[in-house]
Amino acid sequence: MERKIEIVQMNEEQYEASIALSQFAFQYVKSSEEIQRTKEQYRIEPAIRWAALVDGQLAAQATVLELHTYIGGSKFAMGGVAGVATWPEYRRQGLVARLLVHTLEEMRNRGQSVSFLHPFAFAFYRKFGWETYTEYKSYTIRTDQLPARQAIPGRIERVSIDDSVHTIGQLYETYASKYNGTLARTDLWWEYRVNKRKPGQTAVYYDAQNSPQGYIRYEVKNSQMTVHEFVHLNEEARNALWSFIAQHDSMIERVSITVPSDDLLPFLLDNPRIQHETIPYFMARIVDAAAFVEQYHFDEDDCEDQIAITIKDEHAPWNNGSYMLTIEKSGKASLVSYGSPTPNNGNGSIELGIGTLTTLLLGYVSTLQLYQYGRVQGEESIIKRLQKRIPERTTYLADFF
């Protein structure tokens, strides 16, 4: 007997079934009180939740959070894919694949030109066009290895997050906009995500002019300080915050902290041999290539560039095909389809997959590196032209979903 499979949008009536699947799949248990509190978040948080029903029963689910991310200093509408789960009896039957393809169509319809997710397996999501776009460094530092305390011109003030959320929020947004792939946080995101996942103390650094220049969120437990967020707008603030951390040396044995991949703390230390590792983190995928390029800011140049580009995208047919990428002197660009095959316009052409295009434009891997690894095909001179126009920015994400 043939089964009936449907992809439907969930609502609050499916909350109990959804939370049961999530608890099973992600191996956590919530109390009845926690379930009720989470239900409020389920109702209020901007998101579209999708279910794969088999003969009317919930078999798999996925959520698309309605978020914005900074790319080149601008905010892009982003679909955050989260909570992808399947009951064991329905696994390996293509249900998640159907959900992912459906979410791509819906994200495109809603103007979300890019999507992020945290993978349970990088190889699995790579098949559907997502690609690694960011990593972070994790340090564990003994107190005798901490940066030396310095005299600072301003002051450190421990604050209540509720009373200082505006100040901290502004500091975060200024800091986040310097990277590619950070979240633009809303008040709801601070309330439901940041404050719950990153407990403890908050300390703000004010310079000599009483202007806030940075903050840390941290907790001290079992002789260890865990720094959840370390946000600084300049070197003075960075030094001040590390000096503040070092003031805890009598009550801790070590400090654990995660930082962007461009952080150079070991280089600045007298003894750089601290425990540290680089950890691949989130994946990204361009949902609508033409819409993404239209909003993207390439570097300025003395002349216009026209590059014939073929994009391979098996799961989003609106991206799959051949295009002319036109980059104006100002950095404004367009991606116009001209069908297939690639025309012989004398300017040369390149070919790449949608995941490769994503990680390239976000700046995680350079065009020339991707060319060397065989992820971009084409004439090296054309690839160098494209590389010249892509802004250099570090990718980072301080959040989780």
Automatic annotation (TrEMBL):
SUPFAM superfamilies: Acyl-CoA N-acyltransferases (Nat), SCP-like. Residues 5-153 form the N-acetyltransferase domain. It comes from the Bacteria. It holds the Pfam family SCP2_2. InterPro entries: Acetyltransf_17 (IPR041380), Acetyltransferase_Eis (IPR051554), Acyl_CoA_acyltransferase (IPR016181), Eis_dom (IPR025559), GNAT_dom (IPR000182), SCP2_sterol-bd_dom_sf (IPR036527). CDD domains: NAT_SF. This is Acetyltransferase.
